[in-house]
Amino acid sequence: MTSPDLQHKVEQFLFREVRMLAEGRFEEWLDLFTEDTRYLMPIRETTATREDSERGEEFLPHVDDDKDFMRARVQRLRHHLAHAEQPPSRLRYFVSNIEVEDAEGGEKGDLDVRCNLLVYQSRLERTEKIFVGRREDRLRPEKDSFLIASRTVVLDQSLLPRSITIFF
Amino acid sequence: MSDVNLQDLVRTDEGLISRRIFFDPDIYRAELENIFAKCWLYLAHESQLPNPGDYTTNYMGEDPVLIWRGMDGEIRAFLNSCRHRGMRVCRTDSGNARQFACPFHGWTYGNNGELKTVPNFEDGYFGDLEKENWGLHEVSRLTSYGGFIFGNWDADAESLDGYLGDLRWYLDILITRSLGGVEVIPGQQRYSVAGNWKIAAENFVGDSYHLAHSHGSAYALPIRQLNPANPMVFRDRKLEYYDIAMEGGHGFTQFTLSGERVEVDRMLAEEMGPEVVEYVEECHARLVKLSEAQAKVHALPFGNVFPNFSINDFSALRPVGLYLWTPKGPGNLEVWQWAATDRDAPQVIKDMARIDFTRFQSTSGIVGPDDTENFEQVTQSTAGVIGQRLDFNYQMTLERELVEGFDDVPGYISTYVSEENQRLFYQHWANLMDGGRGARQVYDKPRLAAQG
């Protein structure tokens, strides 16, 4: 059973993290990830069973990044020709259903944190998109806070509402 | 649309194309009839359906189709709709099934499309329903070219070979170079774009002009460090690129014709180890057997198979990208895309392919989303009455002669960058939309095609 203190600490970490994304503080956000992190977003397909719908390692994902490529994405967004996000979209992140557990395996003190995520993207005049899914993070204690040792973003949509120009 | 002469809207001889063709709902309806119900459309790759009963789904125009391998081993495609009341028969994306029972009243179809059972056949239809006439509505023609499965609703259409024409010479490079054959990585990326399908197709058919500016933010990255096989390494070398347009509206761009791409693959392979060096040599040897000219081309770079199937293939070391721009009304399209590798490529190449694809021309890549923004805002520009009075400009290289001197390479070769390919794409589009009445050629004297 997770203590209320730990639950609170994890929640505050996640809320601060998504605020960095909403506010475009991507460099600060990158610092929340370990150097050997993995950021994975599998594809979803409509399949006969619920289990099969979440496509695994042998399938093409939407994203499978290491820290170097995450850095490259941020660097690109800062370039004056990255016009899919310039002018920037207006973003609102909603994080809920936060579940915290001691990690199985990993380093001492690691936590497995699961949450639901809803991201609203408003762009130019009429472009409005909503991405919905869950995240599974491996959090590693670091000083008074955490680092994200891995993140899996499982969107519920099999057909995404738009190409992805934002982070989850 | 009776008041519209499409040839007036598509004036390729002046390099002018009316914005109306990207927005007008009547023109769009006519496209579904004259393009999507008459052309050969890409459906799937055979490697996605290895076993009897395997199926996958797709769209032809706005019609949903089910591509299904029967117990007899034959691949067929059907309108994914029950013949009784139209309910979607297969509602999953892919899998394996001996039969599908329609969810509505339970009409059940075997994987050869045949109507097998009908509930209340005896006490409702009194045995009078002619089941043999009520199988799934089959796509009239289905042909595979080197594993790439195309379908056509028009029973009288020319053969796929004739339709692909000179393009076969280029597809043969991709198909022959692939060790063990092209294999699609399972899974498809799909996303919506609020744009007209032609804007996406023409972007691939020949628009290398947009690369430097639209994708300037990607080119500025240290890509070479991030991906050992990335083509952006080309930026360090002076290469002669060419665009090639083909009869039938197909076009590819960024070709090298003197062996440069194989040289770059060799150089990159050296850094990736002896297994990869050997692999590149094997690829090359197979192409040499095909022909010297094809071995020199080595890879397709990127282009579009008319009307809406795009391919990128920069190198033997990188994944092949397969892209469908599926129309969803004049102002919307869906992108369905897959990555493929050679079945027998070294594991290091296969492992890299999966990730490589996601990072570039992909849902979330550093290239694809900037294209999305263009497609959407270009389409938006065609909505207003003032905008619709204007033409888009396709005048680049309009007055230039075609490139001569590559007599063993088929198609119309133009200098890089150019808009030859786009003009030929739209002229072919207009000719089909016009039902052949006022069909015009872009070139007065079509070059004789080399043997394809």
Question: Could you characterize the architecture of this molecule?
Answer:
The complex is a heterodimer of chains A (168) and B (452). By secondary structure, chain A is of the alpha+beta class. Chain A has one domain: Nuclear Transport Factor 2, Chain: A (Roll), CATH 3.10.450.50. Chain A has helices at 4-22, 26-30, 50-53, 67-77, and strands at residues 39-41, 63-65, 90-102, 111-123, 127-142, 145-155. In chain A, strand 3 and strand 4 (111-123) form a beta hairpin. Chain A is globular, with a radius of gyration of 16 Å. Chain B has 2 domains: 42-143, Rieske Iron-sulfur Protein, CATH 2.102.10; 164-433, Naphthalene 1,2-dioxygenase Alpha Subunit, Chain A, domain 1, CATH 3.90.380.10. Chain B has helices at residues 6-9, 25-36, 160-164, 167-177, 197-205, 211-214, 216-219, 223-226, 260-272, 274-290, 292-297, 347-359, 368-380, 385-388, 420-433; strands spanning 10-11, 16-18, 41-45, 54-60, 63-69, 75-79, 94-96, 99-101, 108-110, 115-117, 141-145, 148-152, 182-184, 189-193, 242-245, 251-255, 302-305, 309-312, 320-327, 333-342, 391-393, 412-415. In chain B, helix 4 (167-177) packs antiparallel against helix 10 and helix 9 (260-272) runs antiparallel to helix 10. The longest helix of chain B has 17 residues, at 274-290. Chain B is globular, with a radius of gyration of 23 Å. Classes of the chains: A alpha+beta (168), B alpha+beta (452). Chains A and B meet through strand 2 and helix 4 of A and strand 14, helix 7, helix 8, strand 20 and helix 12 of B.
